[in-house]
Amino acid sequence: MTDRELCAAGIGDPALRAAYRHCRALNARHGRTYFLATRLLPVERRPAVHALYGFARWADDIVDSLGTGADTGRRAAALTELRRSLGHGLRHGHSDEPVVLALADTAHRYGIEHALFHDFMSAMSADLTVTDYATYADLRGYMHGSAAVIGLQMLPVLGTVVPREEAAPYAAALGVAFQLSNFLRDVGEDLDRGRVYLPADLLAGHGVDRELLRWSRDTGRPEPRITAALREFEALTRGVYREALPGLGMLDPVSRPCVRTAFVLYGGILDAVAGDGYPVLHRRAVVPHRRRVAVAADGLVRAAGARLRAGRPFRRPAAPRPMPTPELGGSCPPAAVEVV
């Protein structure tokens, strides 16, 4: 399936193929919901999504998982090196770092604004020193770089039936909605990393602070005030999903099943948290396997139908542009490279 994706996308250079495979492996290993939804995209668009996710995953791992003994200085140095590699890759189209090589190729092929990647790196750097957010407005400022830009990066790959700038606010909102879902699910894990993403003023409105969260985490005991704060954060997150929903109809029809599946599955995190009584300080809520299977099956049916109807006029993404470097000899037959 990987070779089919790469050949359909016209990626024949061996180094590029290896870089995209690396990103696909990161997606499959770490982004179960994201990877499942990606499988519903037309085959030629999947490598680009793997590259975007792979880079985001790589940077996030530097912040959160760079060895248990990595101090802030080592993490900052690693992020600085990644930022340097990113800048060079975006300018020159090549890099020794596989995720940067694939990302640079995707950015060039789809004309993705470089500023979106730099904004993302700024948000990753903030995670090294910022441990909480006073207000929801402050949190939204952070999420521009950590989440909204992901939706904006994806938009050229997904394609739209309206001018891209019209769909952009909805794509950004969907990226924020997905991250807010993760924040709610991961309150306990983030607390162990020293971070609280729930706004301090929202918590304070229910008599909750970091110390009370820490007490509940350490003792395993629920606290009604914490549950009330989590319920309000859930309601806030559902409001962002409603804000993003109109954007689904603005996407290229063949991309809608993918995004709709992600929309339903990430929203299902909220259902799982609420249905389990908001125990996020003590265990991670998961969307039941049978629910994931049912949503995926529905997505497959929708994707098949969308491809059958793809002869209708719509605004496709711009034809991917090859990188301005010579091919080194790929493994795709010429006919396969042309399947787009």
Kindly describe this structure.
- This protein has 340 residues and is mainly α.
- It has 16 helices and no strands.
- Helix 9 packs parallel to helix 14.
- The protein is globular.
| Rg estimate, integer Å | 20 Å
| Shape verdict | globular
In whole angstroms, the N-to-C terminal distance is 15 Å
> Can you write the helix and strand succession as a string?
HHHHHHHHHHHHHHHH
* Counted beta strands: 0
Q: Please tell me the overall pLDDT.
A: 88
Strand content: under 5%
Helical content class: 55-70%
The number of helical runs is 16
Low-confidence stretches: 312-319, 323-329, 335-340
Largest sheet: none
Derived structural class: mainly alpha
Brief rundown of the structure:
The chain is built from 16 helices and no strands. α9 runs parallel beside α14 (256-275).
